[in-house]
Write a structure and sequence with these properties.
The chain is an all-beta fold. Helix content is 2%, strand content 47%. A hairpin with a 2-residue loop joins strand 11 and strand 12.
């Protein structure tokens, strides 16, 4: 369980309001701020009641509009409002839009934040709302809780005299403060705890992006790019930054303060990795500034010029280098656990740096996005020179790990290479090209060794809408030939209530109902002679086949796959990663070269339904040695159809997941 960092945000200030409105004075004028970059704060009390259509409830001309409106219950784009619906299925929302202006991006104007009212504990009645624009953040707080935010570029264009008004039917009073108030943070009286497996950050539109992990001084750390709106924040530039979880026993997890919060309008952070060097616990990451500014306005030309002239990178201080900071940088932990501080140093022009200390103690980096290859240096801050050009190819984040006598590099969504540890870098072979990879649906997985020689893999599962989704963690297994596979991590496998036996044996087409929306299915497979036969389980909604999913094992081919579920037949063959289908799409795909299926073996399947993801995850563990996960939008499983051909399924049990 994660002990969430649950905070209340208090906007108490001795600063007088610039202007106030009330039911008696619903409209007024006020003078513009002396400096727009200092931001503004609007505090108001809203009386939420039933309404139809759209209601404008508070407005500052050409600067701010606040409205209530009924949202389409089927529309999850950007804000994912249908994650929280009223009992009648409706999705009323509260939204605030600020109007921004910038010379760099004149088309980046309206930035909207908002919440579905069903997210609130008491959707109807009075609530205290704070809208806070600091220049770096545009945030909505409700009753002291931060419920939505985005990251602006540009500032409002204030008039010398500004008119604002409220609708007294919904807003009781309002006050505007210039400049913005800095809130005080304090822990909530009742902190929240939630399971870590399949976790997403609290809220309607918040997700786990790229995951980076490390084991340091007995503690396993998970850093993840915090995402809202599936990469659509900051005018579709992402606006990501690293949040941080850790654990010492994998049962109790702690949420820490953000490791790399955004501090400037130009910041949007790309992926990286944690590492330890000279006893410093660090987190490397990329500044994806070219999403905001053209490259010639950043520090990248100076960095590339230094590298091309000298064959090594230089050290570029943020405040001493012309241009907007860009490229690879890092933060350092003050206590070896959390409390990270940005170094303000750019050490390489690549924008997704994978820094690591190799088993011999050398400081190395795999360059990703805008560069590639393996690099080496005696200092984090500069002097990086390439020792293996072109490999691994640049792109998403790559992770190096050594396990016994083998070295491995896993890269992004599809790449996996290995070699004998004693062999040179040129000996890396393409494992994914042989169909021997362990990709299971996890996107951009990170690999870390923990106590006892165990290895863990952590990644994220995409949802409908795009980038970012649920956190998933696996335990890895290694075989004598160096092959690696995966299984469920026992410490975080969801707990169930008492199982119910559905059948002692299934050797034909059989239909079973489910128990609840989320459950675990367990059974033993008895293969026929010479590994022949196949079986499939179609997970179906209450009626029809829409959004259904079939888990199918073809024992003769040593394949497992997800495909479309059916009322009448097995799904056709789907493709593996080697054959061109990416498991990270978590749709219809296959895995090859199954292990441990030539004798009786156990299959476990978790179906995890969640209103926030708008569907279900289907997570399978095969013979305790291979995992694969799929996502189906719109699916709530009500029935399961078992089909067998040349195999028997024994002791079929189902158990509801505990809350």
């Amino acid at each position: 369980m994660i002990q969430l960092l649950t905070l209340l945000w208090l906007f108490q200030t001795s600063q007088p309001a610039q202007n106030t409105l009330s039911a008696q004075t619903p409209q007024a004028d006020f003078a513009a701020p002396t400096n727009a970059s200092n931001g503004f704060t609007v505090k108001f009390t809203v009386d939420l009641k039933k309404f139809d259509g759209e209601k404008s409830i508070l407005e500052i001309s050409n600067v701010l509009s606040v409205r209530l409106r009924q949202h389409d219950p089927l529309d999850r784009k950007r804000q994912n409002y249908p994650a929280f619906k009223m009992p009648d299925g409706s999705v009323p929302v509260l939204e605030a839009t600020v109007v921004l202006h910038s010379s760099e991006h004149p088309d980046w104007k309206n930035m909207t934040i908002g919440i579905p009212l069903a997210l609130l504990k008491k959707p109807e009645g009075e609530h205290d709302i704070v809208l806070n624009f600091t220049g770096v953040r545009w945030t909505m707080y409700v009753d002291g809780e931060l419920l939505d935010n985005d990251f602006p570029f540009g500032y409002p264009r204030w008039a010398p005299q500004n008119s604002w008004k409220l609708d007294a039917k919904y807003v009781k009073r309002a006050a505007i403060y210039l400049p913005a108030i800095t809130p005080e943070k304090k822990p909530a009286k009742q902190p929240n705890t939630v399971p870590v497996q399949y976790w997403t950050p609290p809220g309607h539109n918040s997700w786990v992006g790229d995951v980076a992990t490390c084991f340091h001084k007995g503690r396993y750390h998970v850093f993840y790019l915090y995402d809202r709106r599936h990469h659509y924040s900051k005018f579709e530039c992402g606006g990501h930054y690293f949040e941080h979880l850790s654990t010492t026993d994998f049962k109790t997890w702690t949420e820490h303060e953000a490791a790399t919060p955004l501090d400037e309008q130009w910041e949007t952070i790309g992926t990286g990795v944690p590492f330890v060097f000279n006893d410093k616990f660090c987190l490397s990451y990329g500044l994806h500034t070219t999403r905001i500014y053209p490259q010639d306005k950043t520090t990248l030309p100076a960095q590339w010029d230094c590298l091309n002239k000298n064959g090594r990178t230089g050290t570029f201080q943020r405040d001493a280098t012309p241009g907007i900071p860009a490229g690879a940088t890092y933060s350092v932990s003050a206590d070896g656990i959390a409390n990270f501080k940005k170094s303000q140093i750019m050490f390489h022009p690549c924008e997704n740096p994978s820094v690591y200390t190799d088993p011999s103690g050398k400081l190395r980096m795999m360059a990703n996005f805008q560069s590639n290859g393996i690099w080496e240096s005696e200092s984090i801050d500069g002097g990086w020179h390439c020792i293996n050009p072109g490999f691994p190819p640049g792109g998403d984040c790559t992770f190096f790990f050594r396990w016994g006598k083998f070295d491995y590099i896993i890269g992004g969504f599809t790449g996996l290479w290995s070699k004998l540890a004693a062999a040179p870098n040129s000996a890396y072979e393409d494992v994914a090209g042989k169909g021997l990879d362990f990709y299971d649906g996890s996107a951009v997985p990170a690999i870390t060794e923990i106590t006892g020689g165990r290895f863990l893999m952590a990644g994220w599962i995409p949802m409908q809408g795009g980038w970012g989704g649920n956190l998933v963690i696996r335990e890895l297994m290694q075989f004598p030939d160096g092959r690696v596979s995966s299984k469920w991590l026992k410490e975080i496998t969801p707990e169930t209530d008492k199982p119910e036996t559905l059948a002692a044996k299934v050797a034909e087409t059989t239909t079973f109902p489910t128990v609840g929306k989320s459950f675990m299915l367990t059974f033993t497979v008895q293969p026929a002679a010479a590994k022949q036969g196949k079986f499939g389980i179609s997970f179906l909604p209450e009626t029809g086949e829409q959004a259904s999913c079939e888990l199918q094992l073809r024992l003769a081919d040593l394949r497992a796959q997800f495909g479309p579920g059916s009322l009448n037949s097995f799904a056709g063959k789907t493709k593996s990663l080697r054959e061109g289908e990416g498991p990270h799409h978590v749709g219809n795909y296959a895995i090859e070269n199954l292990i441990g299926v030539d004798t009786p073996f156990t299959v476990r399947v978790i179906v995890k339904s969640d209103d926030k993801i708008g569907g279900s995850l289907i997570d399978a563990e095969i013979a305790g040695q291979r995992t694969m996960i799929a996502y189906r939008a719109g699916l709530t499983v009500k029935n399961m159809i078992f089909r067998t051909e040349g195999v028997e399924l024994k002791n079929v049990q189902i158990a509801p997941l505990k809350d």
